[in-house]
UniProtKB/TrEMBL annotation:
<dbReference type="InterPro" id="IPR015421">
    <property type="entry name" value="PyrdxlP-dep_Trfase_major"/>
</dbReference>
<comment type="similarity">
    <text>Belongs to the class-I pyridoxal-phosphate-dependent aminotransferase family.</text>
</comment>
<dbReference type="InterPro" id="IPR015422">
    <property type="entry name" value="PyrdxlP-dep_Trfase_small"/>
</dbReference>
<dbReference type="InterPro" id="IPR004838">
    <property type="entry name" value="NHTrfase_class1_PyrdxlP-BS"/>
</dbReference>
<keyword id="KW-0808">Transferase</keyword>
<feature type="domain" description="Aminotransferase class I/classII large">
    <location>
        <begin position="33"/>
        <end position="387"/>
    </location>
</feature>
<dbReference type="InterPro" id="IPR050596">
    <property type="entry name" value="AspAT/PAT-like"/>
</dbReference>
<dbReference type="InterPro" id="IPR015424">
    <property type="entry name" value="PyrdxlP-dep_Trfase"/>
</dbReference>
<dbReference type="Pfam" id="PF00155">
    <property type="entry name" value="Aminotran_1_2"/>
</dbReference>
<protein>
    <recommendedName>
        <fullName>Aminotransferase</fullName>
        <ecNumber>2.6.1.-</ecNumber>
    </recommendedName>
</protein>
<keyword id="KW-0032">Aminotransferase</keyword>
<dbReference type="GO" id="GO:0008483">
    <property type="term" value="F:transaminase activity"/>
</dbReference>
<keyword id="KW-0663">Pyridoxal phosphate</keyword>
<dbReference type="InterPro" id="IPR004839">
    <property type="entry name" value="Aminotransferase_I/II_large"/>
</dbReference>
């Protein structure tokens, strides 16, 4: 049957992260000793008290539909989390629970964008931002987060791309892929710009619990009541509580936007998975010790592996402050080893050194690669050793 697909999906770019991970898994299945550093999820299991709560909820018969916006008890737990962590008051009625934070973003773009509306996306960016904007009929407008500014953007840069069609700007802090955090003064300056031009702020805070070496996450919504009103916060339990497969995220903010997202959800997903919601309630209302233990493990890995990584010829890397990724600039290493570009260098690493990393081109930053340290220290050190040996061999 010759069937033409909808134009909206014909221009979609496959996820670079998933493509590399799939190739690495395929090689492993063939018995090849591949070390994969592409993972976008913690290597810890979900804490036991969360698993137990989900099982108990199912045994007690809580396996039916819930409200489209999520269980009231879960929304109250999220509301309390905002009070405790950010000191902001967001009522449960201004929160929608979704099937993962990715779905929260997707639904948000669907309800705020008309054809031709522009969304400013700083690069490097998480791979799904531009694709989701395009699916909603919008236009991604990119501005470069410069390496010399820790891959972050400034109001002066925003000023160069703003237009009458600008609808929103995305701030991802801590960032995937760079691991960098925006400081309070930086957020204040961006917030002032957005208030002046009446631009919606989409604050992706999915890695907020994973910050290191004394750095602290600050939400732009906590800076002032005016900025809270101007911001939609995107978050979830996937990274903070190692619950990636449970698919529980949420959006919080403007009443009208959250209501529209709820209406759309009622005609698409209906509700997030019910047992997962009970697990998420336990995640926020129960012990946070497993979160701290995971964070401490990531911090230890970062501080060990970072020093080994920057010792590789042609590698330069700003030390991340959060998330669980390293994002080195390897353009010089690619040149030194005779590869045409970083994408070819990444292919060489996989085929010859048997190490899978993600090319920065998928994040709008073709000079870089992304390595996840959400794997054991033993595997990390082995992977970096292989990369170092691969580069040294090519230099001989």
């Amino acid at each position: 049957m010759n069937f033409e697909l909808a134009q909206r999906v014909q221009s979609l770019t496959p996820s670079t992260t998933l493509a590399i991970t799939a190739k690495a898994k395929e090689m492993k299945a063939q018995g090849i000793d591949v070390i994969g550093l592409g993972a976008g999820e913690p290597d810890f299991n979900t804490p036991q008290h969360i698993i137990d709560e989900a099982i108990q909820s199912m045994n007690e018969g809580y396996t039916k539909y819930t409200a489209a916006a999520g269980l009231p008890k879960l929304k109250e737990a999220i509301s309390n989390k905002f009070k405790q962590d950010q000191g902001i008051d967001i009522p449960a009625s201004d929160i929608i629970v979704t099937s993962g934070a990715k779905h929260a973003l997707y639904t948000l773009f669907q309800v705020i964008l008309n054809k031709g509306d522009e969304v400013i996306i700083p690069t490097p960016y998480w791979v799904s931002y531009p694709e989701q904007v395009k699916l909603a009929g919008g236009k991604p407008v990119f501005i470069d987060g410069l390496e010399e500014n820790e891959y972050k953007v400034t109001p002066q840069q925003l000023e160069t791309v703003i237009s009458e069609a600008t609808k929103a700007v995305i701030i991802n802090s801590p960032s995937n892929p760079t691991g960098m955090l925006y400081s309070k003064p930086e957020l204040e300056a961006i917030g002032e710009f957005c208030l002046k031009h009446n631009i919606l702020i989409i604050s992706d805070e999915i890695y907020e619990k994973l910050t290191y070496d004394g750095h602290q996450h600050i939400s732009i919504a906590q800076i002032s009541p005016e900025l809270q009103e101007q911001t939609i916060i995107i978050n979830g339990v996937s990274k903070s509580h190692s619950m990636t497969g449970w698919r529980i995220g949420y959006a919080a903010g403007n009443t009208a936007i959250i209501k529209a997202m709820t209406n759309l959800a009622s005609h698409s997903t209906s509700n997030p998975t019910t047992p997962s919601q009970y697990g998420a309630i336990a995640a926020y209302n129960g012990s946070q010790q497993p979160v701290e233990e995971m964070k401490n493990a990531f911090e230890e890995r970062l501080n060990i592996i970072y020093q080994q990584l920057v010792a590789i010829p042609g590698f330069t890397c700003i030390k991340p402050q959060g998330a669980f990724y390293l994002f080195p600039n390897v353009e010089e290493a690619a040149k030194l080893t005779g590869f045409a570009d970083v994408d070819a260098f990444v292919k060489g690493l996989l085929e010859e050194a048997k190490v899978a990393v993600i090319p920065g081109s998928g994040f709008g930053s073709p000079k870089n690669i992304r390595l996840s340290y959400a794997t054991s220290l033993e595997q990390l050190e082995a992977a970096v050793r292989r990369i170092h040996e691969f580069v040294n061999h090519k230099l001989q």
